[in-house]
Amino acid sequence: MSGTDRLSPAARRLCDAMTAHFPGPGDTAALRAAAAASPGGGPEVASVRDTVADGVPVRIYDPAPGAGGRPLVVFLHGGGWVMCGLDTHDALCRALAVASGAVVVSADYRLAPEHPWPAAPDDALTVLLWARARAAELGCDPARLVVAGDSSGGNLAAVTTLRAPGLIAGQLLFYPALDASMEHPSVAEFGEGYFHTAAHMAWYWDQYGGDPDHPHVSPLRAPDLSGLPRTLLVLADCDLLRDEGLAYGRRLGGAGVDCGVHLVPGVFHGFLGLPLPAAASAIGAAGAWVAATAAAAAGLAQE
């Protein structure tokens, strides 16, 4: 890259190494195999167990079994709606559970192209309703429910919030895909040379299907965002999805939603799963936001 590269030196090394071994768009099997080879890790969590939420496999992370009234997070993984799952995002869910003190329920929703839209958002809503109905059993307060996701999972989190805003205390969106048009300036600026390419994103959208103008496909196109819960957008500065995240934040703020934007410099799409100081810092801040959002929601519920 040129001397104007905005990635940190450590992020650039990781970006180039990952790009060298990641398949181009078009081969679903190869992409899934590459994603499955992602390293594990993550902090120890007191209880981690797999179960099924009304037909959708889930993994539940409980950092303090036996406690009650805690925040509850439903997490939706990224992967372009076509790859990844419980194992690829295990470390991130562990880190989020530890950082927030919340019970995290990670959803293994159906993937495209075998199961195109609306299979994934329908599964996401199913898991949300299942988790909320069992909040007390999980040692959580249903009033403290947060929905979270990264990339395409951030899209699903935003869509789930649009579908059930009254059931959710907050939405935590990590570099979400929010607009199928891909017409934002950051697409041209970071569409090549920053691991996640515009060609990949266009292919993911094509596999996913659905009407690009539908707000449950492109949440940025929702006609009315008023009444949505507290929101935190965590964005990577060197990411083709950056500008649609910023646009969503502006629209939410304009609609009267309590919305924060954490724009992380020097990193690229997917940085939360990488051994970078910026990743640890962002996860820690996101965990604190979940705890604060849950506390605020509990206070309102008691009024």
| Coarse shape | globular
The number of strands is: 8
Strand order, biggest sheet? 1-2-4-3-5-6-7-8
Question: Which range best describes the helical content: under 10%, 10-25%, 25-40%, 40-55%, 55-70% or over 70%?
Answer: 25-40%
Order of helices and strands: HHEEEHEHEHEHHEHEH
How would you classify the helix and strand content by structural class? alpha/beta
Please count the helical segments.
Answer: 9
Intertermini distance: 55 Å
Question: What is the arithmetic mean of pLDDT?
Answer: 96
- Report the portion of residues in β strands: 15-25%
Spans of at least 5 consecutive residues with low confidence: none
The main β sheet shows up as: 8 strands, mixed
Task: Calculate Rg over CA atoms.
Answer: 18 Å
What's the topology here?
Elements: H1 9-20, H2 28-36, E1 47-53, E2 56-62, E3 70-76, H3 90-100, E4 103-107, H4 119-133, E5 140-150, H5 152-163, E6 170-174, H6 185-190, H7 198-208, E7 230-238, H8 242-254, E8 259-268, H9 277-302
Parallel strand pairs: 3-4, 3-5, 5-6, 6-7, 7-8
Antiparallel strand pairs: 1-2, 2-4
What does this structure look like?
The mean pLDDT is 96. The termini are far apart. Helix 8 (242-254) links the parallel strand 7 (230-238) and strand 8. Helix 3 crosses helix 9 (277-302) and helix 4 (119-133) crosses helix 5. By secondary structure, the protein is of the alpha/beta class. It is 38% helix and 20% strand. It has 9 helices and 8 strands.
